[in-house]
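Chapter summary example.
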Amino acid sequence: MRKTQPKKIPLAPDPKFNDKLVTRFVNNLMWEGKKSGAYNIFYDALDKVAKTTGEDGYEIWKKALTNITPGVEVRSRRIGGATFQIPAEVRADRKVSLSIKWMVRYSRERNGRSMSDKLANEIVAASKGEGASYKKKEDTHRMAEANKAFAHFRI
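The structure predicted for these 155 residues follows.
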């Protein structure tokens, strides 16, 4: 194990909305180091969201991210030969990370022509409290609730 944790490199805000969260999202969306392509996909998706809902695409995206952000999760802990799923609060940084990863992952798994279409559909669904990424959050919360009896094993 290393002695000290590496320094967090500060992210540059994106050019259009001047938001570091957008940069973080695009970094997760990016494939093979093609950041400009990822920005194009993201901005196209927000335009499509704005067209379908009639509201600001950026605001809908932020609402969708907050809708799929988990509050609790289960962590495995081995106690006396048995492995227990112990519910634990999620750190603020990890909450955002999980919600971004879930949105990108379930967008990729959706049916659609282009990635921007799939991402736009997932953003709209998540903002309404529907879709696979929202279901993942609900499942995570449900699993933590079911294992509440093991909360006293928390570290």
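To summarize the output: The radius of gyration is 18 Å.
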